[in-house]
Design brief:
single chain, 328 residues, alpha+beta, five-stranded antiparallel sheet
Length: 328
C-alpha cells in the first residue's frame, strides 16, 4: 500500500517522537505510585507537544525472575531459599528460589516495625491488653501482662533485638487500634512495596498456614525498613536494657542480648564485609531464617536472606558463604 504525503508526515513525526523518548530529550519524570492492580510496571506517554517518560516501578530495585547461580556459587543445598542483593548497583549476586512462598518466622517483625515506624510516634505510650497473652510452646516472650506500659521506642527495641512475640502484639494493638487492623496495614504495605507474594496473618510470625512471604519480598520490605535511622540503630545493637512499668507503676526490668549471633561475636563475616544487623527467625515450620544488612570495605550496602535452613549453625555458616560472594 502506498503512503500519501500526509501519512508520511505523520509517520515521520511518530518516529521523531519515539527517537526523542529514547534519547531523553525533553523527558519529564513522572512520580507514579505502584499499584498491585496495574497491568504493567512502566510505560511511556507520548504527545506532539512533549515526551514524558514514566519511571519504572523497579528502576532502583534488584530484579531477578529466577535463580542466579554460577558455577562457583556457594552450596545452598541445606537451605530452601536464599539471595544476596547489592543495593548500590541494584544487582542480584545470588538467588535460589527467591519467589517461593515460605514461612518467615520472626522475619515478619521487620514488617511489624516498618508499619509501626510509619504510623506511630516513638515517644507514645503503649498499654498491654490480654492480646499479649501468647501461650504457644517455645514462643519468645518478654513477660508482658495486661496493664503493662512502655513507649513505642522501647517496644521496637525489644521486638527487633530480642524478638519478643508478646511485644509484637502490644505494638499491633496500640498502633492499629486492633491486632486485626494492624495486620491489614501490614498487607497493605506489602502490596504498596510490590511484595505481592506475601500474606501476613499476625505481627509476630508464629506459624499460620496462610502466613507466608518470599526471599524477594523480604528484600523489598527490609530495604524499606532500613530507610529509617531508628531501625538501623536498633538492628545494630548487641543487647538492650530498659525498664517498663506494670499497671501499678512498679518497674519491670528488661536486659537481653541480640538474637543475631554475628553481633554476639559467635560468627565472623568475611574480612571485607561488616554486618550492620538484621533479623533472625526460627519455628518448626520455617526452619532457621536470617536476614542481614551488611556493607563492604567501600561502604556499599548489601541485603542477604536465607529461609528454611536446616539448623542454627547451618544458617550462619551458609550466610558467611553467601557474604563471601561480595567482590568475589
Amino acid at each position: 500500500m502506498k503512503c500519501t504525503s500526509r501519512q508520511k508526515s505523520v509517520f515521520l513525526l511518530c518516529v521523531l517522537l519515539f527517537a526523542c523518548s529514547l534519547s531523553g530529550c525533553g523527558n519529564l519524570s513522572y512520580d507514579m505510585e505502584y499499584h498491585v492492580d496495574y497491568d504493567v510496571s512502566s510505560f511511556n506517554v507520548v504527545s506532539r507537544q512533549e515526551t514524558r517518560t514514566a519511571v519504572p516501578f523497579a528502576a532502583s530495585l534488584c530484579v531477578a525472575a529466577g535463580d542466579v547461580i554460577r558455577e562457583e556459587s556457594p552450596d545452598m543445598a541445606q537451605a530452601e531459599a536464599a539471595a544476596l542483593f547489592g543495593l548500590d548497583r541494584s544487582e542480584v549476586l545470588y538467588a535460589k528460589n527467591i519467589h517461593e512462598r515460605l514461612h518467615p518466622a520472626s522475619l515478619t517483625k521487620v514488617m511489624t516495625a516498618l508499619v509501626a515506624l510509619e504510623n506511630g510516634q516513638l515517644n507514645q505510650t503503649l498499654t498491654a491488653t490480654n492480646a499479649v497473652n501468647i501461650t504457644e510452646s517455645g514462643a519468645v516472650l518478654c513477660g508482658l501482662k495486661k496493664g503493662d506500659t512502655m513507649t513505642l521506642d522501647q517496644a521496637l527495641r525489644i521486638l527487633l533485638v530480642y524478638s519478643a512475640n508478646d511485644v509484637a502484639m502490644l505494638i499491633a494493638e496500640n498502633i492499629g487500634g486492633s491486632v486485626e487492623r494492624f495486620v491489614e496495614m501490614m498487607n497493605e504495605k506489602a502490596h504498596m512495596l510490590g511484595a505481592t507474594n506475601s500474606h501476613f496473618m499476625n505481627p509476630h510470625g508464629l506459624t499460620d498456614s496462610d502466613h507466608y512471604t518470599t526471599v524477594y519480598d523480604l528484600y523489598l520490605i527490609f530495604q524499606a525498613a532500613v530507610g529509617y535511622d531508628t531501625f538501623n540503630e536498633i538492628i545494630h545493637m548487641s543487647s538492650y536494657q530498659t525498664v517498663f512499668y506494670d499497671e501499678t507503676g512498679r518497674e519491670k526490668a528488661f536486659d537481653k542480648p541480640n538474637t543475631n549471633r554475628f553481633l554476639q561475636g559467635e560468627y565472623q563475616a568475611p574480612s571485607n564485609v561488616t554486618v550492620i544487623g538484621g533479623k533472625t527467625g526460627t519455628t518448626s515450620a520455617a526452619g532457621n531464617c536470617l536476614m542481614l544488612l551488611s556493607r563492604d570495605e567501600n561502604g556499599s550496602p548489601y541485603i542477604s536472606v536465607i529461609l528454611r535452613a536446616e539448623g542454627p549453625d547451618i544458617v550462619y555458616s551458609r550466610m558467611i558463604d553467601l557474604l563471601g560472594e561480595i567482590h568475589k
